[in-house]
Amino acid sequence: MSLQERLPVWSVSLGCPKNRVDTERCLGSLGCTIVPVERADQADLVLINTCAFIESAVRESLKTIFDALEACKDAGRSPLFVVAGCLVGRYGKATLAGEITEVDLWLETASMAFWPSMIQERLFGQAIRAQGRLLSTGPSYAWLKIGEGCRHRCAFCTIPQIRGPLVSDEAQALREEAKTLVDKGVRELVLVAQDVSAWGSEKGKSLCDLLPTLAEIDDLTWLRLLYLYPSGISEALLTCMRDIGAPLLPYFDIPIQHVEPSILKAMGRPDTDDPRALLDRIHAVFPDAALRTSLIVGFPGETDEDFESLARFVEEGHFLHLGVFAYSAEEGTRAAGFPNQVPKSVATARRDRLMAIQHAVSRKKLLASVGSTLPVLIDSAHPEWPTLFKGRVWFQAPEIDGITYISAESSPGSLVQAEIVESIDYDLTALELP
């Protein structure tokens, strides 16, 4: 096979949007024409970018690998079979290669810059320097990964072991990538990292040094930040965001994880203060801010009283969007060895109760938008109804929040004014205005 040929590729990215960016950058830097195919047994290159953050993610990654291998075997096909990402980072390629011998190439996260050249060598017998990105998110939005690794050492988390310490991407390189994406027609950029608020801290810089250079890109409609640690949301950052204004959205994704100081301390979180004070500071600068958070229930030592305190906090209705995770004791983490492990059934019941509380909170908040006029960014067309689309209003982040179903005469990538006519659970429906 030569670099001039079209390359049929079946790829899948499991887990977080950061993995998606890694896959897009790798495929876009192969220096050949990529032809996406629907099944692994139709491909000349199979690329599976894995997640291994928790046990269920490990199981999903392994199932995806074995299912694809089986499909190729049944079809008598032998594509270059590549497995990359966190599964390799967590367990090591030597261990995995000994267990799953059918995989041709294991790519560790530590060698991510060399993924394209390693694949080129196996496919084409040579490596050429190429740089690009093959978008998989459609015309409306794209993820912009701004750093690798994490500077925190939370007791429940495997990420520092897998991804290493914080390494922030250079501002100029990020601006160039962002501009390229916008020039291709992308309307929204979503900044992602393990802790977006920590960008540049290992180099004596701050997020305030990056945001203005991105916000001034012509034709960028929305700029959204995901995953801001509570300890990283300083008065200086809030002031910076306020001064920038549009296209930066007043959307705050803050993984609080818990509200009880004793639990936060046991988790090893960098901020154990009452999160209500932080939320008050945000609302003082952005009265209409949309807030999202994630919580962990069933952490070792969480008592009934601790959980009830957390439940009351959720009932207060601070968050438009909320995710809850039942604690999972992960091999290699400090928390896995803690005493007073909470039974899985208790943690699951606590998760379900919090989600029921939040369902009512989100429903009430979304009902308040019915009758209003808001811009809707159209993501995709409905496969059966030619004038029905899936889109989002500004307080709906792609792939993690609800969506807005909109009846319109537009196309994906368009930003249209619409009347919000209905709220259904976590979603909205809207009509494009003439």
Characterize the structure shown.
With 434 residues, this protein is α/β, with parallel strands linked by helices. It has three domains: 6-124, Methylthiotransferase, N-terminal domain (Rossmann fold), CATH 3.40.50.12160; 141-367, pyruvate-formate lyase- activating enzyme (Alpha-Beta Horseshoe); 373-432, Nucleic acid-binding proteins (OB fold (Dihydrolipoamide Acetyltransferase, E2P), Beta Barrel). The chain is 33% helix and 22% strand. It has 13 helices and 18 strands. It has helices spanning 17-28, 55-74, 86-91, 93-99, 115-124, 159-163, 171-183, 211-215, 235-244, 261-267, 275-285, 304-315, 344-367; strands spanning 6-13, 33-36, 45-50, 80-85, 105-107, 141-145, 147-148, 167-168, 188-192, 222-225, 251-253, 290-297, 321-326, 373-381, 388-392, 404-407, 415-424, 427-432. The strands form five sheets. Strands 2-1-3-4-5 form a five-stranded parallel sheet, sandwiched between helices. The chain has a five-stranded mixed beta barrel with strand order 14-15-16-18-17. Strand 1, helix 1 (17-28) and strand 2 form a beta-alpha-beta unit. Helix 12 runs parallel beside helix 13 (344-367). The longest helix has 24 residues, at 344-367. It is globular. It starts with 5 loop residues before the first strand and ends with a strand. The model has no long low-confidence stretch (mean pLDDT 95).
